[in-house]
Write a structure and sequence with these properties.
The protein is mainly alpha-helical. It contains two helices and no strands.
């Protein structure tokens, strides 16, 4: 077998492998797009929930188990 045939076989099988790797990369990127859309939707839902819970946007002075805030909201 000549060196040229060996190189042609090598190049052919390398092409097949590179195409397989490219397909894997496309699948990974498609999955990443789905996960990013899911994360953005979750972040938007969390933002809506935070704004619904505290519409003024003053989240900096919130405290857990604040008796006065719980009494004012009617939770206690």
């Amino acid at each position: 077998m000549s060196l040229r045939k060996i190189v042609e076989f090598y190049q052919f099988f390398w092409m097949l492998e590179s195409h397989a790797q490219q397909r894997l990369a496309w699948e990974d990127s498609a999955e990443a797009r789905v996960n990013r859309a899911r994360a953005e939707a979750q972040a938007a839902a969390q933002l809506r929930a935070m704004l619904a819970a505290n519409p003024s946007g003053a989240l900096g002075n919130a405290a857990l188990n604040d008796e006065d805030a719980l009494n004012e909201s009617g939770l206690i």
